[in-house]
Amino acid sequence: MQISVTSYDGQEAGSIELADEIFGLEPRQDLIFRMIRWQLAKRRAGTHAVKNRADIARTGKKLHKQKGTGGARHGSRRAPQFIGGGRAFGPVVRSHEHDLPKKVRVLALKHALSAKAKDGAIVIWENADLAEPRTKLLKAGFDKTGLSSALIIDGAEPQVNFALAARNLPRIDVLPVQGVNVYDILRREKLVLTRAAVDALEARLK
């Protein structure tokens, strides 16, 4: 797949060939869905908790005699049906993670990249470098190319000036190539890859 290479402000900088086994697959929504579900479950803290009847500091003395009141046979004020009692079947501290094979995760990433390529939503930059960390300068370049919602993937380490300028722009994310993931790819309209990012992805996923 041949695609043109530009600078961040839209100037032509040649072309590049993208590998079909990474960017040319027919996207499978089931794989992408499984991967996003796995990612979102993994990032949940799982620290939600309530007090059950064993955690309530109240007397355990029997409320009234067993028979003769015409009421229920209660044995504790800590029971869930009383105001101030413990909660029945409430959430407990736990992990929400579930297993997903590594081969499925790798395949899902390929299909997410292919989905962006199929939609024409991949942009290739020569590099992501700025002479100075000025958001105004970067935004002016984005306005020229109509870039308003994008995930920008650079090489092993994004340039400091570029990362500082981009962090003030809403719906613009900058990640190193090691941090590329399905959820972030799909939550933005455009996927911007530098030449270094393309080389690293093809070396990693081929």
How big is the Rg?
Answer: 27 Å
Q: Which regions contain 5 or more consecutive residues with pLDDT less than 50?
A: none
CATH class of the largest domain reads Alpha Beta
Distance N to C terminus: 15 Å
| Total domain modules | 2
CATH topology value of the largest domain: Ribosomal Protein L4, Chain: A
Structural class: alpha/beta
Number of strands: 6
- Count helical runs: 7
- Give me the oligomer status: single chain
Instruction: Based on the coordinates given, report the CATH architecture of the largest domain.
Output: 3-Layer(aba) Sandwich
CATH homology-level superfamily of the largest domain: Ribosomal protein L4/L1
**Main sheet attributes: strand count, strand direction, barrel closure:** 6 strands, mixed
Strand content: 5-15%
- The helicity comes to 25-40%
What's the arrangement of strands in the largest beta sheet? 2-1-3-6-4-5
Written as H for each helix and E for each strand, in order along the chain, the element string is EEHHHEHEHEHEH
Write the layout of secondary structure elements.
Blueprint (H helix, E strand, L loop, with lengths): L1 E5 L5 E6 L2 H4 L5 H14 L59 H17 L3 E4 L9 H11 L4 E4 L6 H7 L5 E4 L6 H6 L2 E5 H11 L1
Parallel strand pairs: 1-3, 3-6, 4-5, 4-6
Antiparallel strand pairs: 1-2
Helix pairs in contact: 2-3, 4-5
